[in-house]
Each structure stands twice: as C-alpha cells, then as structure tokens.
Amino acid sequence: MNEKTTQSSNENRLLRAVEIAQILNISRAFAYRLMQQGKIRTVVIAKTRRVRPADLQDFINRSLSPAPFQNWAK
C-alpha cells in the first residue's frame, strides 16, 4: 500500500464519538451532544453515528474565534 492509498483510506475513515472526544479534548458525552445537536455533521448507519474527518474539520473551522485574544495573561 502506498502513501496516497493510505491517505485516501484515512480521509474516508469514519470517526466514532470517542475519537472525536479525544481529538477535541472533550468528554465523550459532550462529543455525542455536539453530534446529536447537529453541530458536527454525522453519518447514520443503523443506530450508530459516525463523523467524516472533513466534517470534524469543518466544525473546528466554524468554531475558531475571529481574532487572537489580546492580553491573554492579564
């Protein structure tokens, strides 16, 4: 398997709530809540919800603050 194939399979891999929680450094319950509220788009397979990496990145991009905090330490 070459690097391009590996990258493609990683892009197509669907993430579970526990993985979302680890990536975002939040609780699994909060990850489920974000998914259930539609804040992170999901793919529903039977009774399970999964997240495409691109949809997680979209959520992160939408969540960015407009400008860096000034005087953060004060």
Map the helices and strands.
Layout (H helix, E strand, L loop, with lengths): L2 H10 L4 H8 L3 H9 L6 E3 L2 E3 L2 H11 L11
Antiparallel strand pairs: 1-2
Helix pairs in contact: 2-3
General description of the model:
A two-stranded antiparallel sheet has the order 1-2. Helix 2 (17-24) packs across helix 3. 11% of the residues are buried. The radius of gyration is 15 Å and the shape is elongated. It has helices at residues 3-12, 17-24, 28-36, 53-63, and strands spanning 43-45, 48-50. The protein is 51% helix and 8% strand. The chain contains 4 helices and 2 strands; from the N terminus they run αααββα. With 74 residues, the protein is mostly helical. It has a domain at 12-59.
Helix content: 40-55%
**How many strands, what sense, and barrel or not for the largest sheet?**
2 strands, antiparallel
Mean pLDDT, all residues: 87
Termini separation:
51 Å
- The helix/strand order is HHHEEH
Radius of gyration: 15 Å
Total helical elements: 4
> What's the shape?
elongated
Class by SSE composition: mainly alpha
Counted beta strands: 2
